[in-house]
Design goal:
single chain; alpha/beta; Aspartate Aminotransferase, domain 2; Aspartate Aminotransferase, domain 1; 3 domains; 7-stranded mixed β-sheet; 3-stranded antiparallel β-sheet; 13 helices; 12 strands; globular; binds pyridoxal-5'-phosphate; transaminase activity; lyase; pyridoxal phosphate; PyrdxlP-dep_Trfase_major; lyase activity
């Protein structure tokens, strides 16, 4: 192995500042940690200090999971190449993914990043519908490509602004949004916002290609849309000739615990037309996927223009993707997400009783949000306080109750893991 020359955190930081574009931000940028290794749920810095990794949305089955490392190593020793050669791994992987999805989503494209997947989803939608416009939720982020900055209010509001083909719908947030938990029918009210957008677009002779949404808006504030919202929106969008695209890049692969896909939280009767996947799919390996229907794939192929992606779906990527699915199943990780997530929510709710700054604790499995507020009446967000909280780390002086909660959480993660190991082979959790 080519070992890096040992150097201090400060040396690495100055080298990075000299060589890497300053818009590429580090976590905890005022005082970044230098992580040199990781195992399971823990990361370690150059001084051997251990961190419980609660923010990583990629190392889905645990850092350096031996089964993933082994799958990559074994396939690397055999073959890794351009994805235009016929290979079993690609078709086996597509087959396995298809078993996790509704039958209708039966055609797959493999790519290297979430952004690539969302860009392709946009192309598929436009080709199929022959329309151009896209409806997105406010505050959304869908990727770093030019096409996706255009549909990410989180980004375009700080850049050139909103394009004429982009329409922004309010986030279906029943805590702080337009229609709250006391509204008699927030599902219809939020879906009607989308219907109104479509009507206004039609009056301007614009045509809707897609409603593009994260199944659980993450960047938009860890929001859980009320069940039934997607069905109603899909009706309006389909009526306008558009398709429903579910971005599962952050929230797919069992993170929500009770379902494999977060869109399934909406109810069994809801099926998107296109699903995009990334981040956890390869446990850190650059891999992504778009799943869609036969009709949409056929419309895309009808142009006669080849879709070609050099690395997407190469034998190593697919071996890793298959290994990730095996581990999720073998180690009952959906049950683990439910167990640990419920426990973490319980701890956070205990803190909420003690601290009025915690306005809301919401979540599902290991998708959890803590909403800090300045006042109970208006629920005004407290961004400075949130920033302060998320940039504090273990070395700083936390109160004893926070330490106690952290220790309890670590114990639950470990116990849940042990229980799962004991149950492997018995088919129980
Ligand atoms: C919801 C969502 N979609 C798309 C992307 C883009 O994925 P990538 O960074 O792999 O291109 C991200 C990345 O943060 C994301 O959170």
């Amino acid at each position: 192995m080519r070992a890096a020359q040992p150097r201090s955190r400060q040396q690495t930081l100055s080298q990075r500042r000299r060589l890497i574009g300053s818009s590429c931000k580090l976590f905890f940028s005022n005082d970044p940690v230098k992580i040199v290794k990781a195992k399971g749920q823990y990361m370690y810095d150059e001084d051997g200090r251990q961190y419980l990794d609660c923010i990583n949305n990629v190392a889905h089955v645990g850092h350096c999971h031996p089964d993933i490392v082994k799958a990559a190593h074994e396939q690397n020793q055999l073959l890794n190449t351009n994805s235009r050669y016929l290979h079993d791994n690609l078709v086996d992987y597509a087959e396995r993914l298809s078993k996790t999805l509704p039958e209708k989503l039966c055609i797959f494209y493999f790519l290297n990043s979430g952004s690539e997947a969302n860009d392709l989803a946009l192309r598929l939608a436009r080709q199929y519908t022959k329309h151009e416009d896209v409806i997105v939720l406010d505050h959304a982020y869908h990727g770093h490509l030019t096409s996706l900055i255009d549909i990410s209010p989180y980004k375009f509001r700080n850049l050139e602004g909103q394009k004429e083909w982009v329409h922004v719908a309010p986030v279906p947030d029943t805590y702080r949004g337009l229609y709250r938990e006391d509204h008699k029918d927030s599902v219809t009210a939020y879906a009607d916002e989308v219907k109104n957008i479509i009507e206004r677009a039609h009056k301007r002779d614009r045509k809707i290609a897609a409603f593009f949404v994260e199944s659980l808006p993450s960047v938009g504030g860890q929001i859980i849309p009320p069940a039934g919202y997607f069905q109603k929106v899909a009706q309006h969008v389909h009526k306008a000739g558009g398709v429903f695209i579910a971005d599962e890049i952050q929230v797919g692969f069992g993170r929500v615990g009770k379902h494999f896909w977060a869109f399934q939280l909406q109810g069994e009767d809801f099926i998107p037309d296109i699903v995009t996947m990334g981040k956890p799919i390869g446990n850190g390996h650059p891999l992504a996927c778009v799943a869609t229907t036969k009709e949409i794939a056929e419309a895309f192929a009808a142009t006669g223009v080849e879709y070609f992606n050099t690395f997407g779906g190469n034998p190593v990527s697919c071996a890793i993707g298959l290994a990730v699915l095996d581990v999720i199943e073998k180690e009952h990780l959906q049950a683990h997400a439910t167990e640990v997530g419920n426990f973490l929510m319980k701890l956070l709710k205990e803190q909420q009783i003690k601290h009025p700054i915690i306005g809301d604790v919401r979540g599902c499995g290991l998708f959890i949000g803590v909403d800090l507020i300045k006042d109970q009446a208006e629920r005004t967000p407290a961004p400075a306080e949130a920033e302060y909280l998320i940039t504090r780390y273990m070395g700083q002086s936390w109160s004893s109750s926070v330490w106690e909660a952290r220790t309890q959480l670590q114990t639950t993660i470990q116990q849940s893991g042990q229980k799962r190991k004991q149950s492997v082979g018995k088919g129980t959790v």
